[in-house]
Amino acid sequence: MGNHYKYKLIIVLLFSNYCIAQNESNGEGITVVDSSSKAIEATSVTITTEVNVIDAKPTAYRMSYYPRNHPAEPYITKLFFPGEKMQVVIPEGILSDDTLGNVARLEPLGGKYDVQYRMFNKGKGDIVLKPFSIRYISDIIKMKIIDSNENAVPSAKIKVTQAGKLLTHAITDSLGYTRVRIPVSRNLEHEVIISIITDGLFPTWTETYFVPNGSSNKTIQLSALELLKGESIYTVNTDLAPFRKGPENGSDVLFFLNSGEQLAISKVAGDRLYGRVRVYLDKQKNYNYFSGWVLSKNVDLK
After folding, report:
1. Is the backbone of residue 55 left (phi > 0), alpha (psi -120 to 50) or beta?
2. How confident is the model over 199-218, as pLDDT tens digits?
């Protein structure tokens, strides 16, 4: 009985070896694949961000990249410092396939700045985002400059100051329009001074103004000097030019005139000119004419 069992076992083993040999001779091998160990080839994408700093000095930038539908689940968040190249490298496969399904969030640090966003598509290799413009959080005046006939005044130069400090500047377009951004970092309880220079087309225009919060509209109408018989227009060519009560050097100074202001001159006495200047009176909130003397070297005939 035992010999018969051994004989059967030998036959089974021989048959098994024969089958294996047949498979190997036909080029067929037996391979066991563990699906959990299957290699996955991953590709990466480089996202580049640029910033244009305008009248601001941020100390750093916090950049976050996330799917548009899941802002609380960023792909990556990274801190950059001014002058540092703003690039991140992430796996391409984690980006959303939706159109504009990915968001880059820029948060400037070190001041009161707007947080900005850029949406972008999934891509390969390099993704370059549209540059961010960095400004302080501002109140905005939508300003229109016109003349006495309500025609637009293009290329008017606007300066906004407070306590002698320049807050911002702007230039009107061909339609006399511009957006004046005034930082909220100013003293919000005090007025600002708005000055408008038109390169001799009109006298320098000045006004104290309390800036409303948020966005507002303002139209300013400029007008030329009203000339009397025998008067000619001269333009001041320097800052802090003395406008005196009399022609003598020791005469009282009525005002100091700045470059761009205009005078209506009616008399010439040597190196001194006599005429009128239109001055904005802050307390009265209006313009008045004052007569006096100015040195000829400080003005040019228009």
Report:
1. left
2. 888 888 989 999 999 999 99
H or E stretch covering 62: strand 60-67
Q: Is the entire prediction scored with pTM above 0.70? A: no
Nearest to 265 by CA among 238, 223, 301, 297: 301
Sheet with 157-162, edge to edge strand ranges: 165-171, 157-162, 192-197, 205-209
Mean pLDDT over the full length of the chain:
85
Domain boundaries, the chain: 44-134, 138-221, 232-301
Handedness of CA 121, 126, 130, 134 (dihedral sign): positive
Q: Regarding the domain delimited by 138-221, which CATH topology (the fold level of the hierarchy) does it fall under? A: Immunoglobulin-like (2.60.40)
As a whole number, mean pLDDT of residues 122-138 equals 91
User: Residues 132, 51: contact at Cβ < 8 Å?
Assistant: yes
* 138-221 shares its CATH topology with 232-301: no
Residue type, 183: P
The string of pLDDT tens digits covering residues 142-180 is 999 999 899 999 999 999 999 989 999 999 999 999 999
Q: Which residues contact 21 (CB under 8 A, 6 or more apart)?
A: none
Q: Which long-range contacts (CB under 8 A, 24 or more apart) does 116-119 make?
A: 118/49, 119/68
| Coil, strand or helix at 211 | coil
CA-to-CA separations, 90 to 104, 107, 132, 286, in angstroms, rounded: 13, 20, 21, 62
Summarised one tens digit per residue, pLDDT across range 253-277 is: 998 998 888 999 999 999 999 999 9
d(CA 187, CA 195): 18
> What CATH number has the domain spanning 44-134?
2.60.40
Please report the beta strands in 112-214, taking only residues with DSSP state E, as ranges in sequence order: 116-120, 125-128, 132-134, 138-146, 157-162, 165-171, 177-183, 192-197, 205-209
pLDDT at 116 over 90: yes
